[in-house]
Design a protein that fits this description.
single chain; alpha+beta; 3 helices
């Protein structure tokens, strides 16, 4: 009976926490933004962005009302090849000098299964905004040794780079694209809940 009462207290406390609208920040040292694209049809190139940031606000324990804003510094792209990375930063691709940020702003998060969600929102790259849907997996939450509440998510989607003006390409001798149109994106997120009492005291 005591265990049941304890569980009820924990659940109630968690519900109270979210009811106030909890804000979470991305822990950049334990998160990453990865992508994969086909190269010459027969292989793949993978890369990541070094600089990014994001905020999630939710008042419901199941995260279904999550408000999400995320930014990526496109000049921080890294594919372990300096010449290729400079080309990706150029006007042929991201045009990072003119459009330094890629952004995502959520418009809805719908639970579709146990710890599974469909996240929709507006993705802006190179000044072009398109609706994108992500498959999201909630990995759970826990307290770290310093008492901070943390939550983990994996978000995956595939976008057509042509939709965002990243249209540079050449053809192989067999007619295939040297760089594939479809870019598979995976974001591994570790979020840290912000202490509202500390924020309000500043």
């Amino acid at each position: 009976m005591r265990a049941v009462r304890t569980l009820a207290i924990v659940v109630a406390a968690s519900a109270s926490l979210f009811a106030q609208g909890a804000t979470w920040k991305v822990d950049q040292s334990h998160s990453n933004v990865l992508f994969t694209v086909d190269h010459m049809v027969i292989s793949e190139v993978t890369g990541y962005f070094k600089v990014f940031d994001g905020t999630v606000t939710a008042s419901k324990p199941d995260w279904s009302d999550a408000q999400i804003e995320f930014t990526v510094d496109v000049a921080s792209i890294n594919t372990d090849n300096e010449r290729r990375d400079n080309h990706l930063r150029s006007e042929d691709f991201f045009d990072a000098a003119k459009y330094p940020k890629a952004t995502f702003k959520a418009t809805g998060m719908r639970k579709v299964g146990q710890n599974k969600y469909k996240l929709t929102g507006d993705l802006t790259i190179r000044g072009t905004t398109k609706k994108v849907t992500w498959d999201v997996t909630f990995k759970g939450q826990t307290k770290d040794p310093w008492g901070n509440l943390r939550a983990g998510f994996i978000a995956e989607t595939t976008i057509n780079r042509f939709d965002f003006g990243l249209k540079w390409n050449n053809l192989t001798e067999t007619g295939g694209l040297i760089v594939g149109k479809d870019v598979r994106v995976r974001v591994n997120l570790e979020l840290v809940k912000q202490d509202a009492s500390k924020s309000s005291s500043k």
